[in-house]
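Sorry to interrupt, but I need a hand with the structure work. It will help me judge whether the discrete encoding reads sensibly. Write everything out right here, beneath this request:
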Amino acid sequence: MLLIRKRRTPVARSWLAGLVLSSALIGAGQAQALEPEHEIRRLMLATEEAVNAERWSEAGEYLNRLQTMKGEKPAEYLYYRGRAMLQAKHFNEARSALEGYVSRVGADGAHYQQSLTLITDIEKQSKANARALVEGKVNSREPVAVIEPAGGENLNTLRKLYLAKTDREALTIHLNALLDANGWRKDKAVVRLDRPADIQYRVTINGSELTIQQVHREIDGTLVRKTNSLPVYGVNPQPRWDCQAVVGACWIYDPRDGSRLFQLAPNQAKVSEIAQTLGRLIRNLQQGSSGA
């Protein structure tokens, strides 16, 4: 049998290469053509496998992709995010994610018991880190918002704005005004000025302590009040804060033990200003009568 080979011209070779490339692109496009609900499920399965195998870098990549997706994510997303954040030593974000998971699934959740245990472990570790930071033994591994003291000109402006006689009075009024405007709300879609936030705070001065009153509005409208005292001597006048988009809240942390002091609306600029004002007020009280 006589075999005849046909020699392809450059045009034919170019056309064939284009066909192969087009087929590859179509195949890649089909791989990305899953509807959001199926793609979320696929990434959740991949995340679960990576976490169980302790491949944390891989798990983090899947979780980051899930975070950008608009579809509804299952509660387990928060659990796995908490696990990954804990592995990375981001204790605040880990706790937020795990608490979000517990709130969504309740006691019937598959990871309910383990989440509670992890939250307790995070609390212990956060307190240990806070004590070490105060004692100067280690540097904090959590992001710290650096608060610089404001100049006298700004304090003069605050005194004029609030008709206050002292810096201390002006700072207290300003802090409460900021807290009142940035209370935490369950419904973040619509903010009605005539409806108070679900969690609000008011700060008063009692000698060398700050008295912090939290007012929590229940679903039925009942108000639950809690009061906490914060002695200012010996504490760091630079309160830490952060915001967690996954749970829609920001926190300012107690400078004594790193626990949550304020739960606020998810507005980083405003929370930064609140933390700065709180720090200025603490510093003012630490100066005693000279700072009044």
Q: What stands out?
A: The CA atoms of residues 83 and 230 lie 32 Å apart. DSSP finds nine helices and six strands in the chain.
